[in-house]
Design goal:
- The chain is of the alpha/beta class.
- It has helices at about 30-55, 65-80, 120-130, 135-140, 145-155, 165-170, 210-225, 230-240, 305-315, 325-330, 335-355, 370-380, 390-400, 415-420, 440-455, 465-470, 475-480; strands at about 5, 10-15, 20-25, 60-65, 85-90, 110-115, 180-185, 245-250, 250-255, 260-265, 275, 360-365, 380-390, 410, 425-430, 455-460, 485, 495.
- The strands form four sheets. Strands 14-13-12-15-16-18-17 form a seven-stranded mixed beta sheet, sandwiched between helices. A six-stranded mixed beta sheet has the order 3-10-9-8-11-7. Strands 4-6-5 form a three-stranded antiparallel beta sheet.
- It is elongated and about 80 Å long.
C-alpha cells in the first residue's frame, strides 16, 4: 500500500472506501426531538436554494430530484420565472451526502442533477459545464472566489474527497499541530454537519472563518426566515453553533456532535487526524433532550421568554414598593427603566444558556447585583457570585440578594484569582469586555488567564458608548482579546472564550 503526498504533508494512503453515511444518536429522547427538526431543515434548505435566485442572492443553483419530483418542481420554478435543465443522471443513494457521483444502472432508480436559474444564466451554466469552466460555474452558483480556488486545489488537483483537514489548516495558519487542530469561527462557515444535510452555504468553504462564506450564509438564512422557515433557521443556527469534533483514520471519519455521531468515508490516512471546532455549549433542558440554547442566540429567535418571565425579572421582586434610590444609580443608570432596557438582552441570553440545574454564575463588576437578581428570578437554581471595587455597592448587593450575602465581595476584578476562592471553576462568568481595555496589558492578561482557568464559559455584554465606539460587540470583544462564539451582528450580548 503506497503513501500519497497530500495537503500540508497529510499522510494519505492510496485506497478509497465505498461511500457510506451511518448515524448513531445519543439516546432515543434526543432523537425524538431532533430527527424531525433535521428533516425539516433539509427540506427548507432545498427551497432556499432556488428561492435565493428570486431574491437576487445567486444566479443559479443545482438541485437533485427524481423524475417525478422534477416534474413537480419544474412547474413551480416556471411559475416563478425560472428555467431548469437536467445536466446529468445519477444513481440513487440512501445517504444524505455523497462525495462522488454514482453512475446510474439500467432498471434501477435514478435522480437528475438539475441547474435552475433565469433562462440566460442556465444557458451560460450549460456552456461553462460543457467547457469544464469551474470558475464560471462557481461564479454563477454564487461561490466566493477564495473558496473556488481552494476547491480547485484540494478537490480537483489533489483529488481529495474530504476538505475538512485542509480547511482547518487554512483556519489555524502556519505553526499548527500536525495531527490535531482546534479551530474557531462563525456558525455559517461550519460545514461539519453536511453529512446530515445540515449547512448554511451550498459550497465547501476555504476555512472555518471565511468571511465571504459567513456573509453568504447569513444572507441565505435571512432568505429562509423571510420565506416562512423561521423555526428551521433557528434550529439550523443552533446546530451549527455547537462544538463538534471530526476525526479521520484509515479512510473512516467520525463527526461527533452533542446529539449524534456520524461515521462516513474520508481520505485514507496512516495516522489519526482530529479537528475540534469550538462553539456554543449544549445544555439539555429536559428529558426529551431539548437544548438550553434552543432556537439560536439572536433577536430572530422564535423561543423568546414568556411575558410573565420578563415581567418577573423586570420587577425585580419589589412588588408595589418603589426600589431604593441607589438601585439604578449604583450601576451607572439614571432610571430603573433605562437599566431594565440595557439588562433585558443579557437576561434573555442567560435564560437560554442556563439549564434548570444548579450552576454557578460569577459577575465580574457586579455593582449592586441587580443584574444577577434578575437572572436569579427566572433561574432560581443559579448560585450567584459577585465582585466589585465599591464596598457600598457590595453592601447593596447583599441587601438585594440576601440568601447569598457572603457570595459578594469587595475587590479588584483584575485580582479575581486571589479573591474568588468559593469555587475551583465557575460555570459562567459575566463581563463587560471594555473593562479589559481600561487597564494596562499585563493586568488585562491576568484577568484573561483567570477566565481561561476558572470559568467554563464567558457571557459578555456591552451597552451605551462602548457599543457606539466599536460599532457593536463584535468590534469590541476582539479588541479585548476575546473570541465571540456565535452572535447576531447587532446583539449586545453573547458567549465568548478568551
Amino acid at each position: 500500500m503506497n503513501e500519497l503526498r497530500g495537503w500540508g504533508n497529510m499522510k494519505r494512503l492510496d485506497f478509497l472506501l465505498p461511500d457510506f453515511v451511518r448515524v448513531s444518536w445519543n439516546g432515543d429522547p434526543i432523537r425524538t426531538v431532533w430527527e424531525p427538526r433535521i428533516q425539516r431543515v433539509r427540506k427548507a434548505w432545498m427551497e432556499i436554494e432556488w428561492l435565493s435566485i428570486l431574491s437576487g442572492v445567486r444566479r443559479c443553483c443545482v438541485a437533485i430530484a427524481s423524475p417525478q419530483h422534477f416534474l413537480e418542481q419544474a412547474a413551480r420554478w416556471t411559475e416563478n420565472g425560472l428555467s431548469s435543465l437536467p445536466m446529468e443522471m445519477q444513481g440513487l443513494s440512501n445517504a444524505t451526502y455523497t462525495s462522488t457521483r454514482i453512475n446510474p444502472e439500467f432498471g434501477k432508480p435514478f435522480v437528475f442533477r438539475i441547474v435552475v436559474g433565469k433562462t440566460e444564466d442556465v444557458a451560460l451554466f450549460k456552456k461553462a459545464y460543457e467547457a469544464g469552466d469551474e470558475n464560471q460555474i462557481g461564479t454563477l452558483l454564487g461561490y466566493p472566489r477564495c473558496c473556488q480556488d481552494f476547491f480547485r486545489n484540494i478537490w480537483v488537483e489533489q483529488g481529495m474527497i474530504d476538505t475538512t483537514w485542509p480547511m482547518a489548516q487554512a483556519t489555524a495558519g502556519p505553526g499548527g499541530s500536525c495531527e490535531e487542530i482546534e479551530v474557531y469561527g462563525p456558525a455559517e462557515a461550519n460545514i461539519l454537519w453536511r453529512w446530515m444535510g445540515i449547512r448554511a452555504v451550498p459550497h465547501l468553504p476555504c476555512s472555518f472563518a471565511c468571511q465571504p462564506t459567513v456573509d453568504l450564509g447569513k444572507t441565505l438564512m435571512a432568505v429562509g426566515r423571510e420565506s416562512g422557515f423561521r423555526d428551521e433557521m433557528a434550529w439550523l443556527s443552533e446546530m451549527l453553533s455547537w462544538s463538534v469534533e471530526w476525526s479521520a483514520y484509515r479512510g473512516i471519519a467520525q463527526i461527533k456532535t452533542p446529539i449524534l455521531t456520524v461515521s462516513t468515508r474520508t481520505d485514507a490516512t496512516s495516522i489519526k487526524y482530529r479537528v475540534i471546532r469550538q462553539g456554543q455549549p449544549y445544555f439539555e433542558r429536559d428529558t426529551y433532550g431539548e437544548s438550553g440554547l434552543a432556537h439560536h442566540l439572536n433577536n430572530e429567535c422564535s423561543a423568546v421568554p414568556s411575558q410573565e418571565a420578563v415581567a418577573s425579572w423586570e420587577s425585580c421582586n419589589h412588588g408595589a414598593e418603589s426600589p431604593p434610590g441607589w438601585y439604578a444609580s449604583d450601576n451607572g443608570f439614571r432610571t430603573e427603566l433605562e437599566m431594565d432596557q440595557a439588562h433585558r438582552p443579557i437576561v434573555e441570553l442567560a435564560m437560554r444558556i442556563l439549564s434548570d440545574e444548579t450552576q454557578t454564575l460569577l459577575d465580574l463588576g457586579c455593582g449592586n447585583g441587580a443584574l444577577l437578581k434578575k437572572i436569579l428570578m427566572v433561574k432560581p437554581k443559579v448560585i450567584p457570585y459577585g465582585i466589585d471595587a465599591d464596598p457600598e455597592r457590595i453592601e447593596h448587593a447583599r441587601i438585594l440578594i440576601t440568601g447569598f450575602a457572603d457570595h459578594f465581595i469587595t475587590g479588584d476584578i483584575f485580582e479575581a484569582e486571589q479573591i474568588c476562592t468559593h469555587q475551583q471553576k465557575y460555570d459562567i462568568a459575566l463581563l463587560m469586555p471594555g473593562r479589559l481595555l481600561e487597564v494596562r496589558a499585563k493586568r488585562a492578561e491576568r484577568l484573561r488567564d483567570f477566565l481561561r482557568k476558572g470559568c467554563k464559559y464567558l457571557l459578555v455584554y456591552a451597552y451605551g458608548d462602548w457599543l457606539t465606539r466599536y460599532n457593536n460587540l463584535q468590534g469590541l470583544a476582539p479588541r479585548a482579546g476575546l473570541r465571540l462564539l456565535s452572535l447576531d451582528e447587532d446583539a449586545p450580548a453573547g458567549l465568548a472564550r478568551v
